[in-house]
Amino acid sequence: MATDFKSIPIIDIGPLLSKSDDPDMGSDPGVAQVVEQLDRACREAGFFYVKGHGVPDPLVKEVRSIARKFFHLPYEEKLKIKMTPEAGYRGYQRLGENITKGVPDLHEAIDCYTEIKPGRYGALGKPMEGPNQWPQYPPNYKELMEEYISLCSELSRKIMRGIGLALGGSPSEFEGDRAGEAFWVTRIIGYPGVPDANGDNKTDNDVGCGAHTDYGLVTLVNQDDDITALQVRNLSGEWISAPPIPGTFVCNIGDMLKIWSNGLYESTLHRVVNSNAKFRVCVAYFYEPNYDAAVEPLDFCIQKSGGVRKLGKAVYGEHLVAKVQTNFA
Ligand SMILES: N=C(N)NCCCC[C@H](N)C(=O)O
Ligand SMILES: O=C(O)CCC(=O)C(=O)O
Ligand SMILES: [Fe+2]
């Protein structure tokens, strides 16, 4: 929400992807153009669409389609993979179970996370330990999602190379002990439609997901292509819609990138209001730092901000656990 943007830019990241394994990618003119667009979008809105991302369209559609089938199963069936604190907050949560700023959200979801083996991060990792809980139906649910998640991870890593350059650093800024072992979060989300959504009777005060920021580095939103529901807040407090654009992901900045960039890039507030009659599905993939990463403003970002350090330090895993524990309080 750094400016009064009125729409969200579209960036074709094809040229970045084609050079993203070249350490000298920054001197490629095609890459430089993408990097400039990334910098602008991250400063002005903290949100952009990515096109030319290379994740096959049939797979993008299939993950939404199996999600829709799961949400339409009887409640008893969905409860077989019920989310509990003991299960590391992994699994299915019913409508109203997730809370944002004290208000229950009008969505149901399956939450999954990078699996953490017992003891891997000591006490820091304990609350999130555990295997994911995948639906039994359809039988290939787990395999399909794991393939999708792995493509989203590769794509996000490449976007982060562009963002490293966009900030004025190197393409490997977010590798190693920052995000070389990036933790991921995936939320498979269903938002009920409004029963009577025509004209004056429109009930748009039922919020699917209250205003929040995302927690990590970048998010890739795979949303239904016929419903506009995601809204992004600009500097004046207006809610700017992020309508679906087929063939793209909506990509936005998370809290940890805000800290590393010393606030040059903002994690922008956004919310979801489904005022359509149809059930809306979204699969959100979150690319985050290493679970145990200590995150504080990068020196070169402080220099770019006139030498003023604007944000304090956070440990990513602590930030995640604090969020997750209050999401279900
Ligand atoms: N992993 C991420 N980013 N999840 C976003 C969920 C936002 C809603 C949540 N209740 C909250 O208040 O954060
Ligand atoms: O449903 C959407 O479009 C976005 C969901 C979201 O913002 C989130 O899960 O963090
Ligand atoms: Fe979000």
Quickly describe the structure.
With 329 residues, this protein is α+β, with helices and mostly antiparallel strands. It is built from ten helices and 16 strands.
Please characterize this protein's 3D structure.
The chain has 329 residues and is α+β, with helices and mostly antiparallel strands. 30% of the residues lie in helices and 20% in strands. The chain has helices spanning 14-19, 29-44, 57-71, 75-78, 122-125, 141-166, 176-179, 255-260, 299-304, 316-327, and strands at 10-12, 47-51, 91-93, 99-100, 103-104, 108-113, 184-191, 209-212, 218-223, 230-233, 239-241, 249-253, 270-272, 280-287, 294-295, 314-315. The strands form four sheets. It has an eight-stranded mixed beta sheet. Strands 8-13-10-11 form a four-stranded antiparallel beta sheet, with no helix packed on it. The radius of gyration is 19 Å and the shape is globular. Bound molecules: L-homoarginine (HRG), 2-oxoglutaric acid and fe (ii) ion. L-homoarginine binds next to strand 4, strand 7, strand 8 and helix 10.
